[in-house]
Fold this protein.
Amino acid sequence: MNLKTPSRELILAEIRRNLPEARVDYPRIPIFATPPRPLLELFEENLKKAGAVAYATSNAADAAAKIVALHPHATVVCSAVPEIAGTRRMDDVHEPHALADVDVGILRAQFGVAENGAIWVTEEELGVTALGFLSQHLVVLLDPAAIVADMHEAYRRAQLQRTAYGCFMAGPSATADIEATLVHGAQGARSLDVFYLPRA
Amino acid sequence: MSTSTPVDPAARAEVFIREDDVHEPMHDRFLWATMQRRDAEAAAIPEWEELRAIASRIKEHALTHLDEYLIEFEANATRRGAIVHWARDGAEHNEIVYGILHDRGVSEVIKSKSMLQEECGMLPYLQHRDIQVTESDLGERIQQLDGQPPSHIVFPAVHKTRKDVAALFARTIGTDPSMDDPRVLTEAMRNNARPRFLAAGAGMTGANFAIAETGTFVVCTNEGNADIGASVPPLHIASIGVEKVLPKAEDLGVFLRLLARSAEGAPLTQYSSHFSGPRRGGELHIVLVDNGRSRRLGMPEFWHSLKCIRCGACMNTCPVYRRGGGLAYGATYSGPIGVILDPTFDELKYSELPFHSTLCASCSAVCPVKIDISDQILKYRRVLADKGYLSLTKRASFAVAGHVLAHPLEFRTMEKAAKTALDVTPEFLLYNRTLNPWGRERDLPQAARQTFRDWYLANRMNHESEDTES
């Protein structure tokens, strides 16, 4: 739906009337050199700075056991990945409010970004996007081979035209709004753990 | 023509500085620490300066083709299923938002931080019409509960101590006033906000960037509050200034590398969310807002301020902002960027702001999109003077200075007289609180025994003559 109101025409006309005379050309964005270090090592270093923790996992059963060890008191473990069952499958969740009681949300990221420790998650992995934000804690499965160097490469890979929602998550929810003191778990997830596990 | 009275930033800064020995030094220290983290992040990226130049160029390109990119953004966002509205000013923006909410019977809204919605005065407008609006960013919520505007565009409550927040929360949400641990206070607000997120009929956000090529807009937060607002209620309304549009998705690679590093000295905000059409089962409205931006585009000396990505680095580095606080500006936008944005909304009201600056140019040096902020501040002094907005005190002293500086003999007489004056003038006259607010916290300078000209005539002239003769 496109609301072609008079305001639209008036704003565009006013912009055209006021456009600076000298039109500036679009610049070329070069390919920048990437740091001479293993990307996974750099990713993990930045992930830690952002307040997240990475774990090596040998298989899905190992990952499931780690979740129990990390969150022994969790009652609702909601899984959006086929490898781990949890106590609730995302396939059975169709509405965001049904996620209000989730202790641990499990999802898969498409790839990680070495320069800032972020992971790329889309609506396709989340099912219902609120899983990423109403869950008290998040466990994110990531193929350790799927790490890009920087944000330039990240956007070449992200494919914005293919998803209605995509998010670079760099660690758990954080705030420093009171006396510049860093606190995790402001509104979203209190913790974010990355489990290295290739897709089955 | 405005009928408002000018904000007096020096007097308002004095209130902050004189409050006690705690607030102003803390404010200064936190923001300077943020600046140092920014410097470390910038230094760690070899192509940092190149990124700044490219970002500046992309913004200039987008702004000089703004009509085309807005149409492209609208077409692609619409194709993805968003409903795009256009608002000429704050009033029209608020009417559109209210219309959407009213049509769907929404009475509770949860919103994330949006300087544009702040600029439009959206909260009082909606609350006056019985719509309960809750700020979900912690700092912004603190300011809302205290009835104050944000004092910083990234850290809205940075001027408050933990004791201030503890007292405020005790008064407003019933916490224990003696508990002032930021972790406990943050947890208290998390628990207070959660039922509001779940009950809200709509989530509102702003946007950091809009992408013409894909119809996407990007929202960057650390708390994840914008994402809860966008993912839980059935309706998402985003307010986007028309200047936010960028041509391509690959541009974000440049801007996201710059934004959080400049804003907070971190490589990325915790959440950088990309909305391209509504989520499954959701409804998405985008309100594109002009509110003076198209007019600013036609100001040859000032249109570059439209490149601003609202990172706040200019505030963190500014010696005047760090000492005087953000509320001193009495405006939506504070700090150096506020000084050049606010007069475009009300020239008389903000006519004193360009003088709330030392012109040290540190802001221009750190701006990630290379806005010539300090040059624009200087130009605004001239523009506002030409329009007759200067206070009587400034007009009188500048008139004397202008005359004297234009007449060498009088300057020399004045120079010597000033030395005598500095020696004999009692402090209460020169540092009169009404006549010269800038002198309030400063000591009188020691006058040189000899003027530069006398020294030059006595020394350099002789040497130069010797040089020429030899």
